[in-house]
Design goal:
The structure holds 2 protein chains of 2 kinds. By secondary structure, chain A is mainly α. Chain A contains 2 helices and no strands. The longest helix of chain A is centred in the first third of the chain and has 26 residues, at 2-27. Chain B has a 7-stranded mixed beta sheet, sandwiched between helices. Chain B has a 6-stranded antiparallel beta sheet with strand order 6-5-7-13-8-11, with no helix packed on it. In chain B, strands 17-18-19-20-21 form a 5-stranded antiparallel beta sheet. In chain B, strand 5 (250-254) and strand 6 form a beta hairpin. The longest helix of chain B is centred in the C-terminal third of the chain and has 36 residues, at 670-705. Chain B is elongated and about 110 Å long. The two termini of chain B are 24 Å apart. The chains are: A mainly alpha, B alpha+beta. The interface between A and B is medium-sized, with 26 and 27 residues.
Amino acid sequence: MSALLLLVPLALAMGAVGLGAFLWSLRSGQFDDPDGAAERIFSDADDKPINR
Amino acid sequence: MSCCAPVDLSSVPTATGPAAEELALSSRDLGNGLRQTILAVPDMRCGACLSTLENVLRDLPDVEMARANLTTKRVTVNWRAATGEAPDLAGVIASAGYTAHLPGEDLDREDRMMSFLLRALAVAGFCSMNIMGLSVSVWAGADPDTRAAFHLLSALLALPAVLYSGSIYYTSAWKALSHGKVNMDVPVSIGVLLSFCLSLYDTLAGAPHAYFEASTSLLFVLLVGRTLEHLMRRRARSASTALVGLMPSGAMVVAPDGSTDYLPLTMIAAGMRLRVAAGDRIPVDGIVRSGSSSLDRSFITGESRPQPADEGGKVHAGDLNLANPLTIEATATPDTSTVAELARLLEGVENGRDTYRSVADRAAQLYAPVVHSLSACALLFWWFQTGDLHLALTISISVLIITCPCALGLAVPMVQVVAARRLFEQGIVVKEGSALERLARIDTVVFDKTGTLTTGEPKLLNGEAISSQDMALAAAMASHSRHPLAKAIAAFANPSNSTAFPFTEVREHAGSGIEARLGDDRYALGRRGWATPATADGETDDARTVLGHSGKIIAAFVFGERLRAGAARTVRRLRGHGLDVHMLTGDTPVSAKAVAIRAGIDVFAAGVQPQDKVAYVQSLQSAGKTVLMVGDGINDAAALAAADASIAPASGSDIGRSSADVIMMRDSLEAVVQSLSVSKSAARLIRQNFALAVAYNIVSIPIALTGHATPLIAAIAMSASSLTVVLNALRLGMGEDRPSARERTGLAAMEPAE
């Protein structure tokens, strides 16, 4: 039981970090143009998505 | 203009896109003098296009930021209005070889919907996976204290999924209920909300079972289906890019004192004089007052041959001015113009059409009452039988959950997405899932002629009858022009001997022809009345283009239409499948008959107006036929909307593409056969999935009704049914009639035109 008190919150926190990271990347426009992102890897210019 | 190909800057001028004044009108103010313009660039196809566009735009002095989006085929440009005037964004894009339009419909709303779905899906996924993890340990036999703690934790985790992710279902269900209708979202909402409330009560009361994982994973699975559906529609839209940019939004008005002013279209009145530059569309119906040019009228009539426009001649809104600037006098206001009339016809047809009810909706109509009354019966039965309201409620809710329409919510969109994906590989874009259902029921196919059965490009018919000497001379002269007929002559001749003529002078007379001097001889290739005026009396339709030398005809050229690749084979295969094939055209009966015979079509109607096309389709429908319309032009748009299903080639007009359900990106008409056969197998798979769902319910409902459905059984049953329907849908992707390697690599599209 005492192990669960540590491990369950830990597991949930890790999941929440993943969820947060996904929501952040969605908000910052990283999923706006999946086709373009696949092509931009070949371009040398340093660029980032439009920030809203 | 295709990407990665040398840019052909000398081609016939076409509309280069919205003018700077138009851009300024449509831009968005970002504050601090910064303005944002979003342009649709449908020709953007690869990474090279992307960086070319961004670089040319960033090189403009006023542009702060330019970002191209390959998925939506749009460019976002932030520019500073230092001089109060928009930079020439469209011009710069055109100089790079692309065409820019102002985007028509507002995609923002759709994009917001997509990102809401993704967020809801992420939240539901996170919650349901964690709850499932906790539930597994409960099922594995946790002691009562741990079980109570885990149930409480599950309740906390379920809260965001039920409140946030589920909201899309509750609003849709509420909307249906308040209109007195029932859709699929009603049982979903009731099941999710009731099971959450009951589980919450059980958790607080310390009961052994809680159904949190059922309600959240139900939401998760259904959201996957809905997101897939939305993704498919978005992809199709970026390919079709419905544009309002068809018509200019303003016109250059010439005041009586000679000064010019750019006015929005709404302020144009009859009697005003307007200047139309070469490459622009005529904004309103009118009469030419000065200048002479040739017009591309394919927008309205579908007729691709350029028509001459001289002083006093009538012009129609939507005609494209090809050669020289014209000054016209408006005879109509924009909303009484030809285009506005066509738009009204289209609107009328769209409003009058029965909205097609998708299979899933019809199933919901049957399914919801059955499930709800079953669940209500279970509640009453167990309550009266045992007097235990809590037990009765548990059983009735477990009936709702175990019969959850996973199969319906997931299986139909899943099959449609797989089918759309497969068609996409073959260059066919399906705009919405229900189009596949409608295509599967087609028994009559109606083709438009110009631009659909034929490519719209002229083809030299009597090349063999002309002596090779004359042919070489004509081809050498024709190679100096970009006129479609000149191109057809040049294309016919062998290019190797075209250098043999040392012309001293070659001049092109717009709307008339080409004049060339060879030593002392003067040759004229072009309209008969211009090239050899003395012979113009008996001018017939057949030989309007001649090669003349000192007033005498050396050679006369007869042009016909080129059938689109695979046209005759497509018609043959359609008829082989037992479908009726018809042809409609606004052209003359003679040319209609010529094409119909070559394509193998018996039934055709010539000289039909746009409203006649609609009437033709509707009369077929009232005779009990299910009609597929294949057409491209704005004159077909209303008929495309009136038909049960419709296909437009990507080369067609924008309004044609936006009225059609399916767009074929390649030239070959085989796409019609392919989309019909894929839609048939998709319909078969959807029927199988419904059968699976019914079979699964027949097994599981008795278990739930007798009160044996524990959360574990419900979870297993639900995942099993979802998995089977998904796997069944994926079979479409690997059927034995998968396209061969030859077809997939596009070789099939390259076979010679018939």
